[in-house]
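# step 3/5: fold
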Amino acid sequence: MQPDPGCLRDGAHLLPVRVYFEDTDAGGIAYHATYLRWMERGRTELLRARGYDQSDRLHGPEAVAFVVRRMTIDYLLPARLDDVLTVATRPTELRAATVALSQEVRRGDDLLVSATVLVAAIRDGRAVRIPDEFRRALEPS
C-alpha cells in the first residue's frame, strides 16, 4: 500500500500525517524534531505533486541537491498520540539559488506549528542556480 501523497489546493500542498507512538515522548506528546521530518515530507510531496522527482536529479554531471539553509519555527500547541494532522507547504519566494517556503502543521482548524524554510540548491557543496524544471515546480501561486 502506498502512503497518501496528499494533494494540491489553493497553491499549497496538503499532506496528512498521523502521530504514532514512535513520534512521541513518554507523555504521548509529539517530540519537537518529529515536526521537522513531517515538514521534510511535505516539501518532498509538494515537488512530486508538481511533477518534480528529486531522486532523478541526485546523480550525474548536472546533479543538484536541495538543503535546508535556514528554518524558523514556532511551536504553538502540542500534537498528541493518534492525532491526524495536516502539513501545509506553500512556496513564497523564488530566487536564483534559493526558495522560501511557508509550512504549517494543523490539527483540524488548530495551528500547532508554523515555520518558514529557506532551501538552497547545491552541486559539489556549492550553491548553484535552481534548474528551470525545479523553478517551474516551485513558482509561488
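# step 4/5: annotate
Helices lie at 32-49, 132-137.
# step 5/5: archive (pending)
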